[in-house]
From TrEMBL:
<feature type="domain" description="AGC-kinase C-terminal">
    <location>
        <begin position="896"/>
        <end position="954"/>
    </location>
</feature>
<dbReference type="InterPro" id="IPR000719">
    <property type="entry name" value="Prot_kinase_dom"/>
</dbReference>
<feature type="binding site">
    <location>
        <position position="642"/>
    </location>
    <ligand>
        <name>ATP</name>
    </ligand>
</feature>
<feature type="compositionally biased region" description="Basic and acidic residues">
    <location>
        <begin position="11"/>
        <end position="79"/>
    </location>
</feature>
<feature type="region of interest" description="Disordered">
    <location>
        <begin position="1"/>
        <end position="140"/>
    </location>
</feature>
<dbReference type="InterPro" id="IPR011009">
    <property type="entry name" value="Kinase-like_dom_sf"/>
</dbReference>
<feature type="domain" description="Protein kinase">
    <location>
        <begin position="613"/>
        <end position="895"/>
    </location>
</feature>
<dbReference type="InterPro" id="IPR017441">
    <property type="entry name" value="Protein_kinase_ATP_BS"/>
</dbReference>
<dbReference type="Pfam" id="PF00069">
    <property type="entry name" value="Pkinase"/>
</dbReference>
<dbReference type="InterPro" id="IPR018488">
    <property type="entry name" value="cNMP-bd_CS"/>
</dbReference>
<dbReference type="Pfam" id="PF00027">
    <property type="entry name" value="cNMP_binding"/>
</dbReference>
<feature type="compositionally biased region" description="Basic residues">
    <location>
        <begin position="80"/>
        <end position="91"/>
    </location>
</feature>
<dbReference type="InterPro" id="IPR014710">
    <property type="entry name" value="RmlC-like_jellyroll"/>
</dbReference>
<feature type="domain" description="Cyclic nucleotide-binding">
    <location>
        <begin position="321"/>
        <end position="436"/>
    </location>
</feature>
<keyword id="KW-0808">Transferase</keyword>
<keyword id="KW-0547">Nucleotide-binding</keyword>
<feature type="compositionally biased region" description="Basic residues">
    <location>
        <begin position="1"/>
        <end position="10"/>
    </location>
</feature>
């Protein structure tokens, strides 16, 4: 397994060679037809699910040219790639123009775009997704990859990735006021650095402002002959570019290669805390280098990305028809915008042309000439063409670039694909706003994500005039809250009180409250309506049932009860951890992140005696945790008991992460996600009691003595289970971020051939099989509540999404990418970007460029189609991230045989059901009998009172 990464990082922009700007978003881009020996009916299903697929390259070109002519000049402009610009962008400094350094950077950026476009065309002509990259490397020793390159290329010393290697890297806080350092450089220095960075995929996505900031942040570093720049096995923190002299790469004392001026090394150190594969020593005299550290690089990208996103969102909120939308919708629109470039004098669109694209100016000037309103000059932050999203009608003005201009563009087609029709988006946004104003919700601890979940469960109902919806005094069997979308109603009582209900009002909230016996209507209660509601004019209402509210907030007593501002967790408090017997250790202590997300509610029974817990057999261990198979002495029910040593948690700087995992897990209650039953602690340890999942790892179902892959019929079942679990977490704003079929091993025998001593952590198997054969997502050490995006790089490289690797922020799309990789592996036995002896940097290149292919004879057309949809390089174009969310995946022809209702109730027959002798059978797991109980055998330093306070809410 590739090393498991845990380092605060962020979003990436799409580093696959850029498509022409303005390209329409389709679920599958213009990828070539793959050969398949499956039945023709699969092809028919694909054609029904999406448009314009399975074409030959010639047919595709002909269709694109035909569509371009039909759409006219405007969409042709939208397809114009940044590489086709005729000149560099101009500075926004007025008549002073560009500085010499800015000119060099602009020239470099233009050349980079032109080269990217050339490569994109070559790949399109090849008609395949090439599995290999020409990285110019040469193997010197088993397990180490050395490359000596020309100036402008990196010289890498890469460890061949192993499937089970894990590494840990501590996250860093992203300061909002971060300012990158600036070190003086000559024009020649700038040119040198640009050349050295030009072919490195880590920097290929930087825009001109980012590139300029990065070049300024490189500091000069001089060293004498014999100086060790880095040592083998150390965690690297710098990326180097050799300016003069020579540097030798030593592995286990033997020289395996050298870097010459212009070579670079250490790019992985910018992405996460990677241990160095070789010692780097200055030879043949002194050496001069340029270097930049990880913190500067990561903060530079995150800060710039956040600033750009915020500026874009501020502009979008000024657009009249977008101003009332929820932040979530604004964020999704901002992510879907495409960058387009225009030269001075270019016509953006003409009066009378088809109007379907909306523009926001980032740089430059645009002259906007309206027949009736005259001429207006627009600059950065202004927008135009917004009616294209609302109406399908010809343009009423001319728009021309006065200066070289960079704009963000969004077509109506993309808008509807990402968000849906504008009218529905506005309705959903209004529903959310109205729900927040309902006193039962406003005066409670119900969180915003729960409001959004409830809004998604609102059904639209229509009633004719004179219809009586509620009658005063009648018992309500199915209580519901009603939101008035259109029409007029009257609510009145026998006492003569009345009110008129119009759009933006609500009624029925009194039916949601319990009766005198504290029971709710429809749940054993006898709730009566306090008023009569009659329709005066035909109306359209949004109906939110009490049952749907209950399914989201889990505890109806939270309505109208603010308590301490914290949502009640979903723990089963009836099970006492300390009355359990331990039998067998199931897995290892989870490696956590460390961004604190808030404290969990302390509602545990602290009177339980720890000595009433009996442990039996150990099944596994990590750096600071063990998991046991345990049973309750009183009931005999089996559980998994996770035990983590406080001292080791603190020493590994993971206290906040452990508490965050507990907080996240306490909010989860789903059959396909591991259930946290209870938690507790003593002076030495913290305990997490989990539902027992006995069937072993999904990985062992995929890879065993009989086979190395799974038939597609079985893949459908396992994919559906995992999808349901992920979607459940996403609805609660929880990102999983570490989807894979198996556990990392805490075993240094799994390390590469290079003798590197590093800290390893291990975790519970990430996807397990339960007693009925269903998938269960486990190990939520990387899980995180995220309202917008997160800038933490974490996970296992084989399954990382491009945006995670490239530090630009990611959301739920990263989980769906990982699911696509896992689907590919289940069908073929190998992940899409893996190759024998591949090194980690080459793997990252392939992921970022989206280079993979489907081996013949393994995948049906429908399977290929779904996987392509989830492996779309841009998150906003990825299945699961479009307007219908996970429904786009559920409705795909590949999963049409799944009965989602039966699946959720675990009534479908699983492909494989483990044979278990009894509730304490752990035969599906490896034996860890060679390990000792860490609690009884460890000699741990006593915690101070301040250290104990860290866990006070556990």
């Amino acid at each position: 397994m590739f090393k498991k990464i845990g380092s605060k990082m962020g979003k990436k922009s799409d580093d696959k060679e850029p498509e022409p700007e303005g390209k329409r978003v389709t679920i599958k881009e213009d990828r070539p037809k793959e050969k398949s020996d499956r039945k023709d009916k699969d092809k028919d299903k694909v054609r029904k699910s999406t448009k314009k697929r399975d074409e030959t390259e010639e047919e595709r070109r002909e269709r694109k040219e035909r569509e371009r002519r039909e759409r006219g000049d405007e969409k042709d402009k939208m397809r114009k790639s940044s590489s086709h610009r005729k000149s560099h962008r101009k500075s926004t400094k007025g008549e002073k123009g560009l500085t010499d350094q800015e000119k060099k950077i602009a020239k470099h950026a233009k050349a980079k775009r032109e080269e990217a476009e050339r490569r994109r065309k070559e790949e399109a002509e090849m008609g395949i997704k090439d599995m290999s990259l020409d990285d110019g490397t040469k193997d010197y020793e088993p397990g180490v990859k050395m490359s000596i390159k020309k100036r402008g290329q990196q010289a890498t010393t890469s460890v061949h990735a192993q499937r089970f290697d894990n590494i840990y890297a501590a996250p860093q806080d992203m300061a909002k006021d971060f300012v990158a350092p600036v070190y003086p450089k000559s024009d020649d220095d700038v040119e040198f650095l640009l050349d050295a960075l030009s072919d490195n995929f880590v920097f290929n996505t930087l825009d001109e402002v980012e590139l300029e900031t990065l070049v300024n942040a490189f500091e000069n570093y001089e060293c004498d002959e014999g100086h060790e720049l880095v040592q083998q096995g150390e965690i690297g923190g710098y990326f180097f570019i050799l300016r003069k002299g020579a540097v030798a790469f030593m592995v286990d004392g033997a020289e395996v290669g050298r870097a010459a001026p212009g070579n670079s090394f250490g790019e992985l150190a910018l992405l996460y805390n990677a241990p160095r594969a070789a010692t780097c020593v200055a030879v043949d005299g002194s050496a001069g280098l340029w270097r930049v550290d990880q913190m500067t690089f990561r903060k530079l990208l995150a800060t710039h990305t956040i600033q750009n996103d915020n500026q874009t969102k501020d502009v979008l909120k000024k657009v009249p028809f977008l101003s009332d939308l929820d932040d979530e919708f604004i964020n999704r629109i901002a992510d879907a915008l495409t960058t387009v470039y225009y030269d001075a004098g270019d016509t953006i669109y003409e009066r009378g042309s088809e109007g379907s694209v909306f523009y926001v100016i980032r740089e430059g000037k645009v002259e906007y000439e309206h027949k009736k309103r005259g001429v207006k000059t627009l600059g950065p932050g202004d927008y135009f063409g917004e009616q294209a999203i609302v109406k399908n009608e010809p343009r009423k003005a001319d728009a021309t670039a006065v200066k070289d201009t960079i704009a963000l563009a969004l077509s109506r087609e993309v808008f509807e694909q990402v968000l849906g029709p504008l009218s529905e988006v506005i309705a959903r946004s209004n529903d959310r706003r109205l729900l927040r104003s309902v006193p039962l919700f406003a005066n409670s601890d119900i969180e915003n994500f729960e409001i959004e979940l409830m809004a998604a469960l609102i059904d639209e109902v229509k009633y004719p005039a004179e219809r009586e919806i509620l009658t005063e005094g009648d018992y309500v069997d199915a209580p519901a809250l009603f939101l008035v979308r259109s029409g007029v109603l009257e609510a009145f009582t026998d006492d003569g009180e009345s009110r008129i209900l119009k759009s933006g009002t609500f009624f029925g909230e009194d039916t949601l409250m319990p009766d005198e016996d504290e029971k709710y209507g429809g749940k054993g209660g006898m709730k009566q309506s306090k008023e009569t509601v009659e329709v005066l004019e035909d109306c359209v209402l949004g109906k939110l049932s009490l049952a749907n509210i209950d399914s989201v907030i889990l505890d109806l007593s939270r309505m109208g009860n603010k308590k301490n501002g914290k949502a009640k967790d979903a723990l089963d408090r009836s099970v006492d951890i300390f009355r359990l017997e331990r039998h067998t250790l199931l897995g290892a202590g989870t490696r956590m992140g460390n961004k604190k997300n808030g404290k969990a509610k302390d509602a545990l029974d602290r009177s339980v005696d720890i000595f009433r817990l009996e442990r039996h057999t150990l099944l596994g261990a990590g750096t600071f945790g063990q998991v046991w198979l345990a049973s309750d002495k009183n009931t005999g029910k089996a559980y998994a008991l996770k035990v983590q040593i406080k001292r080791e948690i603190i020493d590994h700087h993971q206290a906040e992460g452990v508490c965050r995992e507990r907080e996240v897990m306490s909010k989860i209650d789903h059959p396909f996600v591991i259930k946290l039953v209870n938690t507790d602690q003593d002076k030495q340890s913290v305990f997490m009691l989990l539902r027992l999942v006995q069937g072993g790892e999904l990985f062992n179902v995929m890879h065993n003595d009989d086979r190395d892959c799974i038939p597609e019929g079985e893949v459908k079942f396992y994919t559906a289970c995992i999808l349901e679990g992920l979607a459940y977490m996403h609805r609660r704003r929880i990102l999983y971020r570490d989807l894979k079929p198996e556990n990392g091993k805490d075993d240094k025998s799994c390390l590469p051939h290079v003798n590197v001593e590093i800290e390893l952590t291990s975790s519970l198997c990430v996807v397990l099989i339960d007693e009925l054969g269903y998938c269960v997502i486990v190990d939520l050490g990387f899980a995180k509540v995220v309202n917008e995006k997160t800038y933490t790089l974490c996970g296992t490289p084989l399954y990382l999404a491009p945006e995670v690797i490239l530090s630009r922020g990611h959301d739920k799309g990263a989980d769906y990418w990982s699911l696509g990789c896992l689907m590919y592996e289940m069908v073929s036995g190998q992940t899409p970007f893996y190759d024998e002896n591949i090194d980690q940097i080459t793997l990252f290149k392939r992921i970022v460029h989206g280079r993979y292919r489907f081996p013949s004879g393994y995948f049906s057309d429908v399977a290929q189609d779904l996987i392509r949809g989830m492996l779309a390089n841009k998150s906003t174009q990825r299945l699961g991230c479009l307007a219908q969310g996970e429904r786009d995946i559920k409705d795909h022809p590949f999963l049409e045989e799944i009965n989602w209702g039966k699946l959720g109730k675990r009534l479908m027959k699983a492909p494989w059901v483990p044979r278990l002798r009894d509730p304490l059978d752990a035969s599906c797991f490896e034996s860890w009998d060679h390990l000792d109980d860490k609690e009884t055998t460890g000699n741990y330093k006593k915690l101070s009172s301040e250290e104990q306070k860290i866990f006070e809410d556990f």
